[in-house]
Design a protein that fits this description.
homodimer, DNA-binding
Chain lengths: 199, 199
DNA sequence: CAACTTATGGCACCGAGCGCCACAAGGGAA
DNA sequence: TTCCCTTGTGGCGCTCGGTGCCATAAGTTG
């Protein structure tokens, strides 16, 4: 098919999204996010500072990779869930699927998430990305429940799913050996014991 | 006692924290957060731009008021909770207390929270403030459970408490007539039905 | 009046981000 | 080949948030 060469008219890009991201992540990791200027990223990528901002809308967005495309995948997974499954279980399975990492990419993902969750500037920016993630969950929940997306329950489902995922990720960063999927299960189990607790 | 005049040495401040915040919020509300420059805030407050940054560490912090002091209050409320109360109920009561608003201040609080929750820049920045709020909850939960603060359960308790509070606030902004306390109750009830759901 | 303290203002500077425009580098049609 | 069209890049200048530094204003105490 060679569908990847649809004609190619005009000047070819000097590099690509992933290459710039890789160079930037390397700098972030070695020198810190704040200490890395966009000029340094440009130099490391062999492009100009101006062009860096054509690949990424902001410096904060660089560590997020192809998050938006992953959201489409999350939505697809949810749609493909057997409707007989209880809502909370459908959501939990989708979250597990969304956060499944190839064995070879674990180390890189750990670097990425350490930056995102422990760098204040990125921690702040992530709130905007999480909103999109929650919206996908909330829309599915709303459809399942026959409610508007802005009703209480779909909102709670979205927020709580995120709460559990973030709890699991924080534990994951603390513990070199833990598996993310186990921690996601553990977070949900923890919530159940918390609410059923009589102590 | 006249304890408010402990001696007062040196030049008197030209204004105060609350006055600057009030002037800034007015500008934010009328022209939008992004369209309001720190210079405009300085002009409206009768001080220089440089001095604005002595009252607030950043423009993003202005709408938050005296949040840190409120956190101390939240911690105190939690400590004062009868230990016989189930953990989830203690947390829920503390959250209710934390978000109790004087009848006269409701309109202003609505403005403040609308800005915070619907302005992207502030939505991002709020993640940093929420972290402090969650930490207070998590520390209390950890103490009650005899676990380290970074264990799974305290983290989940903090994150889930925030998830419910944010769900309630979003509904509150959508609904002019709703009472925040009722929405907080509703959020918690929603979570219970979600997890116990068999549909 | 002098000494000390606290708050302010102004200035220079840095870095992120954007608008604008010239130009580079490719393809296709004449 | 030559001209046109398209896409990508580089550079310039500007705005705005934020900070360090220092002079100075405005108080109190002696």
């Amino acid at each position: 098919m060679t569908a990847n060469e649809p004609v190619r008219i005009g000047r070819r890009p000097a590099t690509d999204h992933d290459s710039v991201a890789a160079a930037a992540l390397d700098l972030f990791w070695r020198h810190g996010f704040d200490a890395t200027t966009t000029q340094a990223i440009a130099d490391a990528s062999g492009i100009s500072r101006r062009t860096v901002f054509r690949y990424f809308p902001s410096k904060d967005d660089i560590p997020w990779g192809r998050f938006d495309e992953n959201l489409d995948h999350l939505a697809a997974v949810l749609r493909a869930t057997p409707p007989g499954l209880p809502l909370h279980e459908a959501v939990h399975r989708a979250v597990l699927d969304f956060n499944r990492i190839d064995a070879g990419a674990v180390a890189q993902h750990r670097v990425r998430m350490t930056l995102i969750l422990r760098t204040p500037a990125l921690q702040a920016h992530s709130a905007l990305r999480y909103a999109g993630w929650r919206a996908v969950i909330a829309e599915y929940a709303a459809a399942r429940l026959g409610l508007p997306v802005d009703a209480m329950l779909p909102r709670v489902v979205g927020h709580v799913a995120l709460a559990l995922a973030l709890s699991a990720y924080e534990r994951w960063l603390d513990d070199e050996d833990a598996a993310l999927a186990d921690l996601l299960d553990e977070a949900l189990a923890g919530l159940r014991t918390y609410l059923g607790d009589r102590s």
